[in-house]
Amino acid sequence: MPRIEMITDKAQIPEDRHAEFDAIVETLHGVRGPFAVLMHSPGLAEKVMAAGAQVRLGSTLSPVERELAIIAVAREKDATYEWAAHVRAGRAAGMREEAIEAVRHRQDTSGLEEDERDIIEFVRQLLQNNKVEQDLFDALEGRKGVRWLVELAATVGQYQYISAINTAFGVVAAPDADQLPV
Q: Are 148 and 66 in contact (CB under 8 A)?
């Protein structure tokens, strides 16, 4: 249960902030989850939404690669809201159940496909050790290129930020959503 009132309706904010609310609705089709929290800080929700839109819509990561990175962040941060939203999106994009379960249960990734394994390991190394080992970095750069690597790291950063907002303010997945064991 959220720790604060969630701003999900334009009537909850002053008229001079309606354009910000409308911009979020235009891009995200509603103000919910972390954006219902971020609306408490004028201008912040719109800026975070713009960065997120760039990560999602302007990235060279495929939808499956992006969603895998996001659920790996959600797992590392025990972020149930992001897990539920993005495991659903990942499945819709074609993410393999083997990869989902490896992330969910923090399993060994050696039996996964190369890209799955390396994305999960990149996220794990970055969030657990605050660095990525050179051999993994070099392998991803060689296969995917520098831009792709920058966008992977940006995706990790964006969803680490979103996970922090959700967790700090008690935004959790709906009871009927795919649950992350925490």
A: no
How far is Cα 146 from Cα 140, in angstroms, rounded to an integer?
Answer: 9
pLDDT tens figures, 59-107: 999 999 999 999 999 999 999 999 999 999 999 999 999 999 999 999 9
For domain 63-168, the CATH architecture is Up-down Bundle (1.20)
Distance of alpha carbon 23 from its chain centroid, rounded? Answer: 20
How does DSSP assign 78-127, residue by residue?
Answer: T-HHHHHHHHHHHHHHT--HHHHHHHHTT---TTS-HHHHHHHHHHHHHH
Domain parsing of the chain, residue ranges? 10-57, 63-168
Q: What sign for the dihedral angle of Cα 5, 10, 15, 20?
A: positive
pTM: 0.93
SS3 42: coil
